[in-house]
Amino acid sequence: MSVHFFRRVPQQGFTLLEILLVLLLIGLAGSYVVGSVLPKDSRRQTETQAEQFAAVAALARSEALVSGRDYGIRLTQYGYSFVFYRSGEWQDVDKIRTLQSRDMPDGLQLSFKPGESVWQESLAQEEKSEDRETDIENKPDIYLWSSGEISPGQVSIQASGHTLLVVLTEMGNIRVQDPRVAEMES
């Protein structure tokens, strides 16, 4: 019986695994370059920011219910921040990480349309009747009371011809809505 030993010939070239790994890395690098070069999808960005605003507003409402403290949302054209009422004045929220102030990404803008004038009038009356001086700069645009109620209104988030509304109802409902649907309902 003869035993044949095969001599191993060194392989030349790459294994399939090595080729697939290189292709994966090239694909990842390419998608990063394309993503940073192409303009951002304003519709998607508007939807994301509107959903995020609605979620954080709902979180602030829940915090108001749980803590028994009134909260508010102060809006600017390019962002929003949260305040709470303590010791006769509105103060910035700084201890709750999820309620920190937020800036809108470039190209997005916020605007606010208050709801029924009855709410605005009742707030003004309440401030006069309690004879309290309120800090105008820190006064919120949207009130989130510890009872669960919200001052009604619409926050409009706009970018490059695309607009979405975050609708706030007095009973505490917060929803994202296309403005065309809002016009049809009213």
Automatic annotation (TrEMBL):
Main location, first listed in the record: membrane
Domain General secretion pathway GspH: from-to ranges: 49-168
Cellular compartment(s): Cell inner membrane
Keyword tags: Cell inner membrane, Cell membrane, Membrane, Methylation, Transmembrane, Transmembrane helix
Family of the protein in this entry: Belongs to the GSP H family.
NCBIfam families linked to this entry: IV_pilin_GFxxxE, typeII_sec_gspH
Transmembrane segments: 12-34
Pfam families, A to Z: GspH, N_methyl
UniProt name for this protein: Type II secretion system protein H
GO biological process: protein secretion by the type II secretion system
Domain of life: Bacteria
GO CC terms: plasma membrane; type II protein secretion system complex
SUPFAM superfamilies cross-referenced by the UniProt entry: Pili subunits (SSF54523)
Record's bilayer topology term: Single-pass membrane protein
Species of origin: Parendozoicomonas haliclonae
